[in-house]
Amino acid sequence: MTDLADIDMEFVQLGGTGIRTSELQFGTWRFGKETEEGNVEIGEKRAHKLLDAYAEAGGRYIDTADVYGGGESERWIGDWLADRDRERYTIASKIFWQIRDGDPNSRGTNRKNIRHRIDALLDRLGTDYVDVLYIHRWDDQTDAREMMKTLNGLVEDGKVHYLGASTLRPDAWKVARANQIARNEGWEPFSVLQPRYNLVDREIEGDYLEMARHEDLAVCPWSPLGQGFLTGKYTREEGLTGESRAAESGRFADAYLTEENFDVHDELDAVAEEVDASPAQTALAWLMHRDGVTAPIVGARTTEQLEENLAAATIDLSEEQVDRLTEAKGGPYAGL
Ligand SMILES: NC(=O)c1ccc[n+]([C@@H]2O[C@H](COP(=O)([O-])OP(=O)(O)OC[C@H]3O[C@@H](n4cnc5c(N)ncnc54)[C@H](OP(=O)(O)O)[C@@H]3O)[C@@H](O)[C@H]2O)c1
Known about the structure:
Helix content is 39%, strand content 14%. The protein has an eight-stranded parallel β-sheet. A two-stranded antiparallel ribbon has the order 1-2. A two-stranded antiparallel ribbon has the order 10-11. Helix 4 links the parallel strand 5 and strand 6. The protein has twelve helices and twelve strands. By secondary structure, it is an alpha/beta fold. It has a domain of 224 residues: NADP-dependent oxidoreductase domain (TIM Barrel, Alpha-Beta Barrel), CATH 3.20.20.100. The site of NADP nicotinamide-adenine-dinucleotide phosphate has 29 residues, from helix 11. NADP nicotinamide-adenine-dinucleotide phosphate binds next to helix 11.
């Protein structure tokens, strides 16, 4: 296992913004997250150990959202940051999902919801500003002009430095149009994108990545390991062969344990062996070598997993290996 301090992560430019930040970001979705059986995936003590490990490897970009763990994720990050130099870290959070039953205005990117939630979020994080505020999903019920004007106000108030859009579907035209409105009005546009992207989930290839390149947007992929599918602990024959909380979700097997995905995994195993790395490290290294990708958001449930994943920063792939991995998933998106 690589020593954490030896990883010494590099800084990369965050798209067209003026800041440089870690080549691997750390995701905290599972801090305080309850499983369907009522277990907590990552408790406070382990959350702090994971943050320690990430920082020791040189990591400086922490990704959260106001709904992760019902606010616990932000609270635990805030407690951890209180003993550190906050200025050294890039902190990103997100707003969107409904927070009050029966109140439609507590969801989305309407002015009332955004203005109410930003202060609560900063309070939990114990900071005056977040470096990046994402809209967690696109809200088709709020006009883009209302959303961009409200978000611009947060930047002008100094509560947010940069704006991001996190998307499930490749809503390329919506982001481009919102940015056009913002520029026409002299408002802050989106600078960072957070889409799902990994060796087996390739829906952003094509228009979305092309739009990101055209707009000079940072691209920070979530679920870079397909929620653990790309780590080698699932097989065609037996399904899960190790321990996993992620796989407790009923939808995981249907989405990931398919013949087509196992074919991709076969190629991943072959390349991993050639470069003497694990499948997880190789899958992350592929993303880091991919044109248009700024920095994947690494997730991990244990410090062992995190140590393994962060060492992806030390792995070099040849162009031929990157191409083989790219082409392992057939279909209309493979040829970028
Ligand atoms: N914007 C959005 O809508 C959105 C959505 C999802 C995620 N995100 C962000 O992206 C981050 C990462 O997403 P993700 O958690 O889905 O990432 P991921 O890397 O695809 O999956 C992480 C999970 O895979 C398993 N795993 C990771 N490394 C492993 C290893 N070396 N060996 C074995 N198993 C390993 C662990 O789950 P098990 O051990 O339980 O199998 C771990 O929790 C999140 O924390 C969050 O910040 C954003």
